[in-house]
Each structure stands twice: as C-alpha cells, then as structure tokens.
Amino acid sequence: MTSHLDPSSITGHTPLDATGLARFVDHTLLKPEATRADVEALIAEAAELGVYSVCISPSFLPVDLSNAPGLLVATVCGFPSGKHHSAIKAAEAARAVADGAHEVDMVIDVGAAKAGLFDAVEADIAAVRAAAPAPTVLKVIIESAALTDEEIVAVCQAARSAGADFVKTSTGFHPAGGASVHAVRLMARTVGGALGVKASGGVRTAADALAMIEAGATRLGLSGTAAVLSGLEADAGY
C-alpha cells in the first residue's frame, strides 16, 4: 500500500481527518496476557482519542464507562478459533450482553466454511443472533485470509441471511493473515450495503486504514489506534 493515500479520495471533496477516522474505530485489546489495568488504560485512551468503541475480552465485562461518555463496548464470542458449539457461543453472547456489551464479534467455524457447509455456518450465526438480538450489534468474523473468494461470498451471504449486522475480516490471530483490501472490497460488494464491513487484523498505518475505508470498510478494528491517527495527521500536515 502507498504510504501517502490522499484522504480526500475517501470522502469525496472533504478529506477525512483524524477526528473523522476515529469514529470508524473499535479500539481493541484482545491479548491473552491483558490485565484489568490494561483495559482501564484502553478505555481512558479511547475517550481521549474519540473512537467509536472499545473491543475487549468478555471476561473483563462489565466495565466502568463513567469517564468515557458515549463510548460503546464490543466483545468477542467463540474467539479466536470459532470451534465452539453454537450453544456455547450463544450462551457467551447472552452473558456478554447481560454484562453490558453493546456489540458482539463472533467467530464462525472456518472449517465448516472450507468444507462448504454454509447452512451450518448460517445456523451458527443465527444461534448467536437469537441469543443477542437487536439492538445488540452482531459482527461475524469470517477469517477472510483463510477463505477463497467463493467462500468469502458464501459466508457473507450466510451472515446476511442469519440477521447479522456486520461481516468482519479477521480475528488477528490466524496464521493466514488479517484484512486485505481485496477481501474488504469483495465483502462490501457481496453485502451491498445491507451489512457493515469491519476490517481488522494488520491495519497498522493511516494508509492501511484509509485504503480499507476506500475499499468499503465501515468499521476498523485497531490495536494501535493512536499511531494510526497520528500518522493521518502527519500525512495531512496537521
């Protein structure tokens, strides 16, 4: 990717500044070694940066948002392998919502997708959707780097049929890699605006972030949010 993507290409005539880009971001901390003190620091940084939400492991819920008005909380479900029974994923999602999560990012059974069992993928998503109904936002992590284009399309269609709100590229933990511009563009074209698209995994620079948005991402999962936003400011000459 180019290191100096023109921000005006993302929003037409108005360049996307750091404040605008921050509103795309789920500020993320999912490291296994994370502590509650780390999560508290994440929330404080999220409030300072003006991001949309924080994304944290479910064991840290509930969290205190009294010093972060307007900040939303996302968590993960069936993470990171997706190799959980649907009933377990559903129970995990229901517990997360009861503990204050506004959004749930679930992992599909990637092996089922690789085997062409897309009805099973849809049923898995539907089980979580039933356990965490609207207004909870449900994002479906598909591990796009591990899938063929045809599998990406089929999984996105399954997510839409199951009532999900977003499709999401990656956990960030799969050895096949994270988000790519190609996958985001394909996912966005497949869902056609009916679902959001979250690019997550390996988005580390302002150029990466802008390229994902240009490809159709409507949300970004970032762990190095401050560096991305400061990089945008630097490229724009702020």
TrEMBL record:
Reactions catalysed, semicolon-separated, are: 2-deoxy-D-ribose 5-phosphate = D-glyceraldehyde 3-phosphate + acetaldehyde
Question: What is the enzyme's class at the highest EC level?
Answer: lyase
Protein keywords: Cytoplasm, Lyase, Schiff base
Pathways involved: Carbohydrate degradation; 2-deoxy-D-ribose 1-phosphate degradation; D-glyceraldehyde 3-phosphate and acetaldehyde from 2-deoxy-alpha-D-ribose 1-phosphate: step 2/2
Does Disulfide bond appear among the keywords?
no
**Any idea which GO molecular function terms this record carries?**
deoxyribose-phosphate aldolase activity
Gene Ontology cellular component? cytoplasm
Do the record's keywords include Membrane?
Answer: no
Q: Name one Pfam family in it.
A: DeoC
Instruction: Give the positions the UniProt entry annotates as the active site.
Output: 105 (proton donor/acceptor), 168 (schiff-base intermediate with acetaldehyde), 198 (proton donor/acceptor)
GO BP annotations, alphabetical order: 2-deoxyribose 1-phosphate catabolic process; carbohydrate catabolic process; deoxyribonucleotide catabolic process
Which Enzyme Commission numbers does its entry carry? Answer: 4.1.2.4
The record's section on InterPro entries has: Aldolase_TIM, DeoC, DeoC/FbaB/LacD_aldolase, DeoC_typeI
Location in the cell reads: Cytoplasm
Highest taxon of source: Bacteria
Q: Which family does it belong to?
A: Belongs to the DeoC/FbaB aldolase family. DeoC type 1 subfamily.
Biological role: Catalyzes a reversible aldol reaction between acetaldehyde and D-glyceraldehyde 3-phosphate to generate 2-deoxy-D-ribose 5-phosphate.
Stated name of the protein: Deoxyribose-phosphate aldolase
Q: Which organism is it from?
A: Cellulomonas soli
Q: Which gene encodes it?
A: deoC
